[in-house]
Amino acid sequence: MTPTAWPAETVWQQVFPLLPDFTVEVLPEIDSSNSELMRRARAGQHEPTLLVAERQTAGRGRMGRVWQSQPGDSLTFSLSLALKPQDWSGLSLAVGLSLAESLHSDVGLKWPNDLWFQDRKLGGILVEAASMGGRSQVVVGVGLNIRPRPADGLNTAPAALTELLPDLTAPDCLARVAMPLIQTLLAFEREGFAPLQTRFESRDVLKGRRVHTSDGQVGVAIGVSPSGALRLQTDTGVQEIHSAEVSVRPFPLENESR
User: Fold this and answer.
1) Sheet with 248-250: strands ordered across
2) What are the residue numbers of the active site?
3) Measured between alpha carbons, how far apart are the two ends of the chain, in Å?
């Protein structure tokens, strides 16, 4: 089997002027790229690192969901950076926006950290942070479906980037998204989410739709706040949902007029 040709050197050359101690690693198999970089951060390794996993055996999504990956079918990577933003709010939204803008104009964003196409899930984001000795290290995990995958056991039917970009491969996808993502994270550290609010809303797949939340709220999503909270118009007024631990789902389109 021919080894996959990853653009590690190209990505490193792009990022080096911004982050001189940046490294790119590609591993054929690992339990979870996020778990590995969190282990390193807790062990005191703070170098900015992009870790690509060709196959994950215990990949993790938000709220403990499992993300399995097989070589070629998806792109799974994690990025570890030392960041000190004044406000962490909206970080996962900024990550999603960067990925969507690097990929295709038809990629939508579902609050707080999923990429959607035609009400199906293209990918997801898991943001974790470790604080050790006064230093904050953020680990951003990304999983993107490159090729179609079965919907077995999934809450949301999957979509694949090859529906939009038929010739896309996982290495091509990494080359598209890596540098803009790092630029977005460094800009977020300086400026927060507010400058990105309008661009996020232009891709917001929930805006204007009736949704229900895992904590029992029902209403119409009316966009996001400058801090990245989901704004929900309910019978008792506008509510802002800040916690990423609250799951939000739209009602099926055929039910929204009821």
Assistant:
1) 237-241, 230-234, 218-224, 210-213, 248-250
2) 62, 121, 249
3) 54
pTM of the model: 0.92
Predicted confidence band at 57 (pLDDT cuts at 50, 70, 90)? confident
pLDDT of residue 206: 97
Q: Could you tell me the two tokens for 18?
A: 């911004």
- CATH number (3.30.43.10, 3.30.450.20, 3.40.640.10, 3.30.930.10) of 8-201 reads 3.30.930.10
Give the pairing type, strands 74-82 and 66-69: unpaired
CATH annotation of 210-255? 2.30.30.100
Q: What angle, rounded to 10 degrees, do the helices at 170-191 and 91-103 form?
A: 140
If one counts every other C-beta atom within 10 angstroms of the C-beta of residue 122, the result is 27
Q: Are 129 and 136 in contact (CB under 8 A)?
A: yes
Residues in the chain: 258
Is the separation of the CB atoms in 147 and 162 below 8 Å? yes
Kindly give the pairing relationship between strand 108-110 and strand 114-117.
Answer: antiparallel
Rg (CA), the chain: 18
Res 130: pLDDT: 84
